[in-house]
Amino acid sequence: MKRLFSTKTSPVAFSIAMLVLRVGAGMLMLGNHGLDKLIHFADKANRFADPFNIGSTTSLALVVFAEFFCAAFIILGLFTRLATIPLIIAMSVALFFSDKGAIFGKGELSALFLVCFLAILFLGAGRISLDRFIGK
User: Fold this and answer.
1) Cα separation of 135 and 131, whole Å?
2) Which of 12, 44, 85, 115 is the most exposed place for a label (fewest CB within 10 A)?
3) Cα–Cα distance for residue pair 1/8, rounded to 1 Å
C-alpha cells in the first residue's frame, strides 16, 4: 500500500510512462487526424484553413507532415524532440486560430495534444526508443 502513495519513481517506470505517452499521443494523432488528411488530401486542399496566408494547400501539407510523419517519428521514438516541434506548432494553431483558445470547449482536444507534445519535448523519448540507440 505504501508504494501506491509513494512519490518516488524508478527509471524503468519513467521509461514505460514515456513509452505509453509517446505511443498513445502519436497513435491518436496519426490515426485519427493525420491519416485522414493524408488520404483525403486532394479533397481538403482547396478548403483547408490558411491562418498564415501561405495557401491552403501548403498549410494542409505542413499539417499532414506534422500529424502523420512527425507523429510516426514520435511513436518510434526517432528524432523525438525535433518531431514534436511541428506538432506543437500545429496544435497551437488549431487551438488559438481554429478553436479561438477555447480550452474548455471546442479546443479541448487541441489543448490536450499540445500538453502531451510539450511534455514529450521537455522529457525526451525515454529509454525505450530509437533515440536511445542513436545517442550512444
Assistant:
1) 6
2) 12
3) 14
Residue with cell string 505504501: 2
Residue 37 C-alpha cell reads as 488528411
- For 117-133, write each residue's pLDDT tens digit: 999 999 999 999 998 88
Is residue 57 predicted with pLDDT exceeding 70?
Answer: yes
Please give the helix or strand (H or E) that residue 133 lies within, else none.
helix 130-135
Q: Is residue 30 part of a domain?
A: yes
- pLDDT at residue 102 above 80? no
Which among 85, 94, 91, 83 is positioned nearest to 114, based on CA atoms?
Answer: 91
- Which residues constitute the domain of residue 52? 14-135
Question: Per residue in 68-85, is it b (16+ CB within 10 Å) or e — as a string?
Answer: bebbbbbbbbbbbeebbe
Q: Is residue 67 part of a domain?
A: yes
In this prediction, residue 7 has a pLDDT band, given cuts at 50, 70 and 90, of: confident
